[in-house]
Design a protein that fits this description.
Elements (H helix, E strand, L loop, with lengths): L5 H10 L4 E4 L4 E3 H19 L5 E5 L4 H12 L3 E4 L6 H11 L3 E4 L1 H9 L7 E3 L12 H4 L7 E7 L7 E6 H14 L7 E4 L8 H11 L2 E4 L8 H10 L4 E4 L1 H10 L12 E4 L6 H10 L4 E6 L9 E4 L14 E2 L3 E6 L13 E7 L5 E2 L3 H7 E3 L9 E11 L5 E6 L3 E4 L2 E4 H9 L4 E9 L4 E8 L5 H9 L10 E4 L13 H8 L2
Parallel strand pairs: 1-10, 3-4, 3-5, 5-6, 9-10, 9-11, 11-12, 12-13, 25-26
Antiparallel strand pairs: 1-2, 7-8, 8-18, 13-14, 14-15, 16-17, 17-20, 19-20, 20-21, 22-23, 24-25
Helix pairs in contact: 1-2, 1-8, 2-3, 7-8, 10-11
Length: 505
Amino acid sequence: MENSVLNYLESTARKFPDKLAISDGTLEITFSEWRHRALCLAEMIQSKINKKHCPILIYLPKSTNTLISFAGVLYSGNFYTPTDIRFPFHKIEGVLSCLQPELIISDHKSAAKLIENGISEDNILFLEDVDFSKEVSADKFLNTIIDTDLAYVFFTSGSTGVPKGVAITQRSIVDYIDWAAKEFEIDEHERIANQAPFYFDNSILDIYLCMSRGATLYIVPEMFYGFQAKLLAFLEEKEITFIFWVPSALVGSANSGLLERFHLQSIHKVLFCGEVMPNRHLNIWRKVLPEAVYANLYGPTEITDVCAFFRVSRPFADDDPLPIGNACRNTEILLLDDENQRITEQDKMGELCVRGTSLAVGYYGNKEKTNEAFVQNPLNPYYDEKIYRTGDLAHYNEFGEIMFDGRKDFQIKHLGYRIELGEIETAILSIEGIDNACCLYDTELQKIIAVYQSSSHIEGLEIKKLLLQMLPKYMVPSEFQDVDQMPYNDNGKIDRKQLKAQFIQ
């Protein structure tokens, strides 16, 4: 097992020096160029701060240069935190306050917003100032890196809105990538279409599969996701073979009615993660590309992106929920009841907890939140062993597969019944003509509200009639709100906070 993701780049640059590594439509680089530019940047980082194990903020547009910066920071012996230059400054300020970065890597155009808001130029390394013409040896960097060093800190606001920095080690990434590359048979012939923002943990799989196996990474222009014809034409033109997207991106393509109009037969692996994938939309993809491998991956940021997976290997009805499957290699999933006893029987719900190398080392600079979520394994009284309590509910089905039942905070008590809002959403999404849906609960008025997006403009009354055939009456929403466009958060998931603010007074 490698002790650093940089060993991936060293090996791949030797094996495939002139092979295209990354393309963002403006800048394309080979693996040897990726390594060379990262080393030049690492040397400049060390000349600026002469420290190791320090946080460095990456403040750049999503681009090839961002990935050069990630590798440069790691070569320098430090760890990176990416953000989005389009975020309002108050959001960046929250990250800066928690992270206290030793350095910010940016370009002159992007950094203007930082400087306007009081960030000193002395704290910024401008990419335009890096001398990429010199030769830099990797030996002086690699010899000091060990596998428990931090690789990145990703910020997630969670349910409170207060940013928490999830700290992940080199070892956790290597463990994840080695598993995924073997499980999905990734090699240098793979052509990956990256959808996830680089500050979102789903991007880790794209980036490091590319780096470790010599695959080519195409950064899809973000505007294409609003223009399905352009998006699908891009996949066709680049002969993409592998996609790992949030379900909402796949739902958008399925809803477009355009999948069959493009030659997408080169796509042979379709993976998704981040939220529930509705089977009605997945079945559209499966019909168009029946030979492709489909896999539902599950995991929060705190466990290096993914801890469970399910290969979609059997038929599912449109209104069936999709399993999240079983634990990834070198990971154990525990379902614990309210008394912290392990659940093994079918259909009994418990909190999904995780143990293994994938676990983050905690929340950066926040011991209180770390101790709440990363706790002693209650099944092990003999020595220190941390598990991560995800706050997600799950149960085992008749096949021994794990079924996701939603967040603890999405479970409601209504009319004396315990109800999972996700179960209602799955039923709504199975209805023809529904493009997307989200259920909310108004605790004060004690009513379930269904917010939905429908290109067919289905009336709420019609949806209610259909739901009464699928769900018990007490689970059927009493209010239906049709929206032209479902709001999404920065990670491409439905923005439930915005919907609550809009529909619950």
